[in-house]
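TASK: fixed-backbone design
INPUT:
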């Protein structure tokens, strides 16, 4: 039997900025169809070279391997641009594929935006 997953969670990608950090928040089911939109949005933020970047996947209900590839690509671009970054998610839908794919040591996911802010403040002040 073949089943098709239909998204019941609309995808949103928003950004908010302060003098210290830009937080890009994605919500919903992040599948292969969203990768270009997500990549473009995150690349634009990195190109603006914010003081720091937090990618918040705390309300993501599904995360495809293609989206994990976008995270690896964007965090590498942030490193090249000298933009400190953090990825946030305590959702099993993100943590499990990140762990199983061996990307935990690369993405270093944190459990909350406040934790990420504190970690980035430490990096920036060092």
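OUTPUT:
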């Amino acid at each position: 039997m073949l089943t098709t997953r239909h998204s019941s969670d609309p995808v949103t990608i928003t950004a908010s900025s302060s003098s210290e950090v830009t937080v890009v928040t994605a919500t919903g089911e992040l599948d292969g169809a969203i990768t270009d939109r997500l990549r473009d949005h995150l690349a634009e933020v990195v190109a603006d070279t914010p003081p720091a970047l937090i990618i918040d996947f705390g309300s993501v209900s599904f995360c495809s391997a293609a989206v994990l590839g976008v995270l690896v690509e964007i965090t590498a671009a942030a490193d090249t641009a000298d933009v400190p970054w953090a990825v946030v998610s305590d959702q099993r839908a993100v943590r499990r594929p990140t762990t199983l794919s061996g990307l935990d040591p690369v993405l270093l996911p944190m459990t909350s935006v406040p934790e990420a802010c504190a970690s980035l403040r430490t990096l920036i002040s060092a």
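COMMENT: Residues 27 and 60 are 5 Å apart (CA to CA).
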